[in-house]
């Protein structure tokens, strides 16, 4: 499951990252600024924790990785032939996730 989508994510990310407008808005919020380099690190080195094969935007997944100061970052992305679409990126809310940010409460 996650290994297959993870391989597709890494391959698409090696070509190009496309940050959708919604993603830019989420990443730019003052209380949770997320740098593009942090998102890039998540998709290149993070792990796929949820797989969405039936997503309306195409097969996508939720990835977990670490940003600056080892903070957890979630990235939803969808691999395409020419690029990796970054659908959203956010700092997971500890009240909605398990302590390791891998499971929903």
Describe the structure.
The chain is an alpha+beta fold. It has one domain (2-90). Helix content is 30%, strand content 30%. It has three helices and five strands. The protein has a five-stranded mixed beta sheet with strand order 1-5-4-3-2. Strand 4 and strand 5 (84-90) form a beta hairpin. It is globular and about 35 Å long. The chain starts with a helix and ends in a 15-residue tail after the last strand.
Q: Which sequence of SSEs, written as H and E, runs from N to C?
A: HEHHEEEE
Question: Beta-sheet strand percentage?
Answer: 25-35%
- Amount of helix: 25-40%
Rg, rounded, reads 13 Å
Brief synopsis:
With 105 residues, the chain is an alpha+beta fold. Helices cover 30% and strands 30% of the residues.
Descriptors for this entry?
five-stranded mixed sheet, 105 residues, single chain, alpha+beta
Topology:
Layout: H1 2-15, E1 17-19, H2 21-27, H3 36-45, E2 47-52, E3 60-66, E4 72-79, E5 84-90
Parallel strand pairs: 1-5
Antiparallel strand pairs: 2-3, 3-4, 4-5
């Amino acid at each position: 499951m996650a290994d297959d989508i993870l391989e597709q994510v890494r391959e698409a990310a090696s070509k190009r990252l496309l940050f959708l407008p919604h993603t830019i808005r989420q990443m730019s919020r003052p209380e949770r600024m997320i740098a593009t380099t942090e998102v890039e690190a998540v998709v290149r080195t993070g792990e796929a924790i949820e797989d969405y094969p039936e997503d309306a935007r195409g097969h996508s997944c939720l990835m977990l990785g670490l940003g600056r100061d080892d903070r957890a970052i979630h990235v939803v992305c969808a691999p395409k032939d020419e690029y990796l679409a970054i659908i959203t990126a956010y700092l997971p809310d500890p009240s909605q996730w398990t302590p390791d940010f891998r499971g929903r409460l």
